[in-house]
Amino acid sequence: MRKSHPVRRAVLAGAATVSAIVLLLSLKPASGPGSAPAAGGAAPPVAAQSPQGGRDAGASTVTGDAVRTQYGPVQVRLTVSGGRITGAEAVQAPKGGQSDRVTADAVPKLNRAAVAAGSADIDAVSGATYTSAGYRQSLQSALDKAAAPAGSGSGSESESGPGRGTQVLTGDAVRTQYGPVQVRVTVSGGRITGVEALQTPKGGRSDRITGEAVPKLERAAVAAGSADIDAVSGATYTSAGYRQSLQSALDRAGG
């Protein structure tokens, strides 16, 4: 009987020691590895958020008018920061059939051109005449909206002039030997800032002639600031109808 007591005490002491070790091990991870991921997981979003917020602070987003073209509407949205175009995207563009391919090729080029030029004075993309024309007009309307609320110290205010907003005027539909021609003009601050052909001769050879002539007539109208522009070689009737419709639109602006 006397020998059994020391053994029992040794067993109990060993069990108590094991229990203490298990308890210590179970408490230790609570303040170690478990808390490290929580702290590490919270830090990255905060670090990533602050620079992003700094970039957006001085930028504004402006959406231009939706411009109807022969193949569907075109609408441009701009990001403007510090008075400069920092981003451009087409919110709407012609789609379906061949338009999908043309749009996919043309729109990225127009976006890059708008950012590079910092204005709507960009060249049409070859093979995307109507989309390019609609893009330029929507782009210009977005720029006009961006300039409108700017303070009196803004250099862009002189383009629209105090109290002189932007007008979009549609000229008469002029009948020609190959079909009607009708022009819509955007006038800002007394200047032509955009021109779009709403109707032009189409079908057969007319499609090719119109595709070549209309962009040239548009650029000439904006550059001249009037309907006093030269006819495009090989498109005599279209040019004459274009000038006549353009003049009728400008007459409405003057009235």
UniProtKB/TrEMBL annotation:
Residues 33-66, 146-175 are annotated as: Disordered. It holds the Pfam family FMN_bind. InterPro entries: FMN-bd, TAT_signal. This is FMN-binding protein. Residues 70-146, 177-253 form the FMN-binding domain. PROSITE patterns: TAT. It comes from the Bacteria. Residues 33-54, 146-161 have a biased composition (Low complexity).
